[in-house]
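for the record, two folds in this file. i put them one after another cuz i was lazy. first one right below, seq on top, structure tokens after. the second one comes after a little note so u can tell where it starts
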Amino acid sequence: MSRAVSYHATVLLVEDNETIRNAFAILLEESGYAVLQAGSGAEALRIAGENTPDLILMDLGLPDMNGLEVTRRLKSASETQAIPVVALTGHALETDHAACLAAGCTAYLTKPIDTAQLLEQIPILLDVGA
């Protein structure tokens, strides 16, 4: 028996590791979010521009461009500048946090991601973008 899920927001998940991306997509979908997926910075820019998601979860270590550069480009485009971007990174230094905020990220989560914390933060982050 399939469970009906009512989507209340769309999240663009930008992660180059397909296994991690798929696992997070399942978690988000089961939590009621519609999920768009991108495996590169260029793909993220294209999808965000075409779909205007409510929130973007941005891996910083992408194969084609740094996630901070993708965020700067999103924040410089009128159609995507208001979308909250959450940086997902394995780096936990204070300078990394400052760089994320300077690039336009709304929040910063270090890997491994605490999924319970992420799911608690998403509604708050969606309010920031509203």
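(here's the note) second protein begins now
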Amino acid sequence: MESYQQHALEGASAVDLVVALYDGILRFLYAASGAVERGDAEARRTAVKRALDIIIHLQARLRMDVGGRPAQVLSEFYASIFAQILQASQSASRQKFDHAIECVKNVRDAWRQVAKDPTVNPAPLQVADFLSGNRQGGQNSAEYGEDAPSGSRWNA
């Protein structure tokens, strides 16, 4: 499975890769939230670190000179969500993690809409569907729930 995922990413467009990174953030935020529920501080810290690493990566790749105002808004979003995740982790608050998850989902869904536009995202449909979780036309949002296996989806 790993080689299939790696192969799918090699053919993915920049927009598809951004969606995959957001999916990674969500996976780690769900893991952190589940760790809070279990009282597992080490697992919470590990998941938070991985989510924050992705956010730092996305922030560092912003091109303010090209992106203009949308890039500035994304930069502000990344700073805000970074702070929210830190607060959720420091207070070990599942509610704060859930709020961060909803915020990330909203922006990820906007990127998914961009990914559907063939003028912006020239990736083959099957790659875009695989990255967004639409395998064989079905939406599987349960993959990001706290019961999802830790080795599933992307290892961002």
